[in-house]
Amino acid sequence: MIRMILKEVKEYRNASLATPLFMILEVMMEMIVPFLMASIIDNGVEVGDIGHIYRVGGLMIAAAAVGLLAGMAGGRFGARASAGLAKNLREAMFDHIQTFSFSNIDKFSTAGLVTRLTTDVTNIQNAYQMILRMFTRAPASLICAMAMAFFINARLALVYLAAVLILGTILVFIMLHATKYFQQAFPKYDDLNASVQENVSAIRVVKAYVREGQETSKFYKASENIYRIFVKAECNLVYNAPLMMMTVYTCILLISWLGAKMIVGSAMTTGELMSMLTYCMNILHSLMMMSMVFVMVSMSSASAKRIAEVLREKSDLENPAEPVTEVADGSIEFSDVEFSYKTDSAEPVLKDINLKIHSGETIGIIGGTGSAKTSLVNLISRLYDVTAGEIKVGGINVKDYDMEVLRDQVAVVLQKNVLFSGSILDNLRWGNPEATDEECMEACRLACADEFIRRFPDGYHTHIEQGGNNVSGGQKQRLCIARALLKKPKVLILDDSTSAVDTATDAKIRRTFREEIPGTTKLIIAQRISSVRDSDRIIVMDEGRINGFGTHEELLAGNEIYREVYESQTGGGGDFDEKAGE
User: Fold this and answer.
1) Which residues fall within 8 angstroms of residue 103, CB to CB, at 6 or more apart?
2) ∠466-470-475 over CA atoms, to 5°?
3) What count of other Cβ atoms lies within 10 Å of the Cβ of residue 380?
4) Which tens digits make up the pLDDT trace of 181-223?
5) What is the pLDDT of residue 144?
6) Which of 8, 16, 28, 111 has a CA that sits 20 to 30 A from residue 321's CA?
């Protein structure tokens, strides 16, 4: 895990190495100052040697200046290295997430991934900076101060050694006890982010149903959980400061008392006593810094594990060694296909699927909720892999294609339509970044979107809010269809993508498809019979199986499920747009 995180230091390796070197230089300068101060007192002030005071005072100023510059350099390089590590970690995680299949993404919640990319990476950044600076500075300061103390007076230095051993043991015990709470805290951020994300993205629904109170309560509950865990952790850490101060003052009293007796007995000078007291503060301050580092490391260890989980996750979809880079045509063939979202599922989602679809055909897909219509079409563009059997597009197994090539030629308008912040043209060019304005307009004309776009004051330059919240559901669907058409695919899949448009517009879109893109294989999932009845053939799905496959007339005559749906939808006198598609 640590190796995986440190791997992302990359171009900031030099800054990472420079930081501790400058911190050690700063410590060395700090350790010299008390020693020089003792010399000023003993050999300058007490004997009245003003020249010695000037000379040693100049050395003190120089040492302080070097220490200051070294500290500033260490801070600068430390900030650069830690911020660089955070940047690289976020980029590595984001790039890795882009390789995930749908099944990989299903393992992590959206809120969980956001937390890992933000809060968890920030924890790693803070911990890395503290390790480079404080965890280098504190042990170095502790060792140097202890060495100088023993050099001045070994008997008094034993007081420091005893204090360090006792205090260090207590601090380690406190840290270990607090760590378990920090490990519980950060997963709770997922719940908090999920609450915020859900509320903000669905704010219109929240207000429409007057659910602000319930949503606020849910947020407070998630926030309260984090608060309670951190309070428990901090209640353990709160003993740090009192213990530290008690140890500091005890050491000062003992050193002062024992040192005064030694001065009276001529076993120690006044300057040496002052140096010992300064080193006392250095030693105990170093312990305090080390305890802070341990706190940050214990907090970040949970974050590091969560980040490593994402980076270790391997996509279960991979390109073959020598992928096919061209899709010959839009023919589709399912051979004994079975599919499960999880390998340990007792019952497959799709079973015994055998289909042959000719290039250029229009295929309707209909079936009840949960009949696996979407699962069926997701396999064609290899958003998931089959559990058994094989699927061919253009006569070649989809697993033999380069995935980008396959998905460029098998365009899918998903059930949940998503638009991104930017202009309408920006959104359309997700389908083809090189598309001209004229090509975008032509795609919109085919999707029956051109008419409403031109009514906007800014036309195709109209700004779309995140998620497409400033356009209606039907307008959003038509823009998504136009975006898919810009790919000029050999297979076009519409997953219930006209459910929010009126039936007359739906019929017009279908008629345009028949006339304008006859060579493209079109698979249309729909709930309305009117949306699929003029298809070349229609698939009837039921509980993950193909219950029927044929023309509208054939299914009406021989398929009970299709006939029941048809009669339930047309029993009131028929669809008013029944002739609109003719």
Assistant:
1) 316, 341, 384
2) 105
3) 22
4) 776 776 677 777 777 777 776 776 777 778 788 888 888 888 8
5) 83
6) 8
Q: Which residues contact 394 (CB under 8 A, 6 or more apart)?
A: 327, 328, 329, 330, 331, 359, 409, 490
DSSP 536-555: SEEEEEETTEEEEEE-HHHH
Q: Which residue has the tokens 């979809």?
A: 317
- Helix%, strand%, coil% for the chain, nearest 5: 65, 10, 25
Which letter does DSSP use for residue 576 in this model?
Answer: T
Under 8 Å between Cβ of 379 and 340? no
Strands of the sheet with 388-393, listed across from one edge: 350-357, 332-339, 388-393, 396-397
Round to whole Å and give the CA distance between 416 and 373. Answer: 14
Residue with tokens 């149903």, as numbered in its chain:
209
Cβ atoms of 269 and 42 closer than 8 Å:
yes
Rounded to an integer, what distance in angstroms lies between the CA atom of residue 73 and that of residue 156? 35
**Terminal-residue alpha carbon distance, the chain:** 63
State residue 464 phi and psi, 5-degree precision. -100, 130
- Please report, to the nearest 10 degrees, the dihedral formed by the alpha carbons of residues 238, 241, 242, 246 taken in order: 160
Q: Quick one: DSSP state of residue 117?
A: I
Is the CB of residue 124 less than 8 Å from the CB of residue 86?
A: yes
- How far apart are the C-alpha atoms of 328 and 401, rounded to whole Å? 11
The CA-atom distances, in angstroms, between 170 and each of 18, 237, 282 are 33, 11, 19
Residues 423 and 464: beta-carbon distance below 8 Å: yes
**Side-chain half-sphere of 561: how many Cα atoms within 13 Å?**
17
Separation of alpha carbons 537 and 552, rounded Å = 7
Give Cα separations from 41 to 35, 52, 89, 292, 527 (angstroms). 10, 10, 53, 35, 94
How would you write the pLDDT of the chain (582 residues) with one tens digit per residue?
A: 788 888 888 899 999 999 999 988 988 888 888 778 878 887 888 778 888 888 888 998 999 899 899 989 999 999 999 999 999 999 999 999 888 877 777 777 777 888 888 888 998 999 899 889 888 888 888 888 888 888 888 888 888 788 878 877 877 777 777 767 776 776 677 777 777 777 776 776 777 778 788 888 888 888 888 888 878 777 777 777 777 778 777 888 888 888 888 888 878 888 788 888 887 777 777 877 777 777 777 778 778 888 998 998 888 788 888 999 999 999 999 999 999 987 777 789 999 999 999 999 999 999 988 899 989 998 999 988 899 999 999 999 999 999 999 988 998 887 777 888 899 999 999 888 999 999 999 999 999 999 899 999 999 999 998 777 788 888 888 999 999 999 889 999 998 887 777 888 888 888 888 888 888 999 999 888 888 988 999 999 999 999 999 999 999 998 999 999 998 888 654 443 444 444
In 10 A of CB 281, how many CB atoms? 14
Read off the pLDDT of residues 126-146 as tens digits, 9 standing for 90 and up: 989 988 988 888 888 888 888
| pLDDT in the model for residue 436 | 92
